[in-house]
Structures are given as C-alpha cells and as structure tokens.
Amino acid sequence: MKNEPLTQEQYTDREASVCPMCRSEDIESEDIDQDGGRGTANCQCHTCGSYWVDFWHVVSYDNLNEGMTSKELKGVEKRAKDLANALLTSAKESVE
C-alpha cells in the first residue's frame, strides 16, 4: 500500500527536508529562482523518483555581521597570502 503524501502543513513542519511522497531525506533542489524575498526550487526525490516545486519566502535573517571595507578585506587577503607563503617555505625547507 502506498503512503499518502504529506499535507502542506506536515511538509512545512518538517522544514521541506523530506520527500512529501515517501519521506526520504535523499532529495535534491535545483533551478532555484529568486525574485526579491520569494522564490521557487525544482525538487526531486532520489528514492522514489517523485518531483515537485518548493515555494519559499524570506521570513527573517540571523547572524548579521558588519561588513569589511575594501581596505580591510585587502589586508586580510595579504595576511592570508603571507601565511600561505610562509607555510610553503617552511614545508620546502623541511623536505630539503
């Protein structure tokens, strides 16, 4: 006997993390299309082969961090390159 598909409420309660038909977590979303704070994504289940479209919208944000100026970002990039070069030099010296 086949499972009844999840209701819309059951699907959203599970945060769209399972196939609404077979409840497998082996699902994939692609062709995500965003328009402002709303969007769609084509989804497919790799277990049962079902496919559907998710509709979503932004409801909030979290973990907001103040951005860096381009000068600060360049400084971080320079320090990262300097560290990478120092590590490479050290590795070469330890091999020789």
Biggest sheet record: 3 strands, antiparallel
Question: Which percent range describes the beta-strand content?
Answer: 25-35%
Count of all domains: 2
Output the radius of gyration. Answer: 23 Å
Secondary-structure-based class equals alpha+beta
Explained architecture:
With 96 residues, the chain is of the alpha+beta class. It has two domains: 8-56, no CATH class; 67-96. The chain is built from two helices and three strands, in the order αβββα. A three-stranded antiparallel beta sheet has the order 1-2-3, with no helix packed on it. The radius of gyration is 23 Å and the shape is elongated. The model has no long low-confidence stretch (mean pLDDT 87).
